[in-house]
């Protein structure tokens, strides 16, 4: 298969991100078939179909993020039907490129597709980088909704100086917050100081005192029972880390600390941008593989 052979995309399931993804692909002069959107009456010039038709009549198929639920069903929130990939659908998918999120989880649910051309767009570095901005903006929105004061002048701690931490610290600084960033590496400490933030060592966090809002971006249990017992009761903690997260929510509840798990923020706060990011990443994969 060559890139020019792909003229029709099947978009299977998902939330508003996939609707904006479909529109963006259509705007690029490709045909799009939406499958698993039974609750929609219409969606402009996009074709609405059942999942099987969308798979059979497309040249490439894009599944949502996440692609499958814990019961192996496809993630189709715009449909009341529970959709599984049966033998007919799997046979069709074996013949074309398939783009998924969390490939390992997808193939665990459907190991028959292990030899198919299954690409994980969520594992691409550009996908993670592009999603950092809507995640950071969504985190600020969570803080504005959950914190009883204003961001300007508030004391904020950002735990982790990765993709999201870097952008989030910048946004908070622009809102005139007093920003401290914690990290582990000496080079990060140098960058944090050079950018004008206060600096802390994540490995040495034994208490969290004097902060109004704490944003955790580290996918590791940082805020365990011991640290939460030494955290100010009026501190708002927003956990942005992927599951299992970085906060012991049971302990936070016990200590009456307001802790919020904020997952999938791009899809919730910026579905248009999130959909366009998926398109960009998928098209980059096609460019790399099908020259």
Shape: elongated
Proportion of residues in helical segments: 25-40%
CATH class of the largest domain: Alpha Beta
What is the mean predicted local confidence, pLDDT? 94
Sheet/helix structural class: alpha/beta
What order do the strands of the largest sheet run in, or round the barrel if closed?
3-2-1-4-5-6
CATH architecture of the largest domain: 3-Layer(aba) Sandwich
Q: Can you identify the CATH superfamily of the largest domain?
A: NAD(P)-binding Rossmann-like Domain
Biggest sheet statistics? 6 strands, parallel
Tell me the series of helices and strands, N- to C-terminal: EHEEHEHEHEHEHEHEEHEHEHH
Q: Would you give an account of this structure?
A:
- The protein has 291 residues and is an alpha/beta fold.
- It folds into two domains: 3-123, NAD(P)-binding Rossmann-like Domain (Rossmann fold), CATH 3.40.50.720; 132-267, NAD(P)-binding Rossmann-like Domain (Rossmann fold, 3-Layer(aba) Sandwich).
- It has eleven helices and twelve strands.
- The strands form two sheets. Strands 3-2-1-4-5-6 form a six-stranded parallel beta sheet. The chain has a six-stranded parallel beta sheet with strand order 9-8-7-10-11-12.
- Strand 8, helix 7 and strand 9 (198-201) form a beta-alpha-beta unit.
């Amino acid at each position: 298969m060559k890139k020019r052979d792909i003229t029709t995309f099947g978009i299977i399931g998902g939330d508003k991100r996939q609707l904006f993804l479909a529109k963006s692909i259509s705007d690029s002069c490709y045909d799009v078939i939406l499958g698993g959107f039974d609750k929609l009456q219409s969606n402009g010039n996009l074709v609405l179909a059942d999942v099987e038709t969308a798979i059979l009549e497309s040249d490439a198929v894009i599944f949502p993020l996440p692609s499958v639920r814990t019961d192996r069903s496809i993630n189709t929130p715009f449909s009341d039907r529970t959709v599984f990939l049966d033998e007919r659908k799997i046979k069709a998918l074996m013949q074309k490129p398939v783009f998924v999120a969390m490939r390992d989880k997808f193939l665990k649910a459907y190991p028959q597709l292990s030899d198919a051309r299954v690409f994980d767009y969520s594992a691409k570095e550009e996908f993670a980088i592009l999603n950092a901005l809507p995640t950071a903006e969504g985190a600020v929105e969570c803080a504005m909704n959950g914190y009883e004061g204003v961001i300007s002048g508030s004391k904020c701690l950002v735990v982790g100086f990765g993709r999201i931490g870097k952008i989030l610290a910048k946004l908070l600084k622009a809102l005139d917050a007093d920003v401290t960033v914690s990290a582990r590496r000496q080079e990060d400490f140098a960058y944090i100081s050079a950018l004008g933030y206060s600096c802390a060592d994540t490995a040495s966090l034994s208490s969290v005192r004097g902060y109004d809002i704490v944003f955790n971006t580290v996918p590791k249990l940082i805020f365990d029972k011991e640290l939460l017992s030494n955290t100010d009761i009026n501190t708002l903690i927003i956990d942005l880390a992927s599951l299992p997260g970085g906060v012991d929510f049971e302990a936070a509840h016990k200590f009456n600390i307001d802790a919020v798990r904020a997952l999938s923020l791009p899809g919730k706060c910026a579905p248009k941008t999130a959909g366009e990011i998926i398109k960009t990443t998928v098209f980059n994969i096609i460019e790399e593989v099908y020259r």
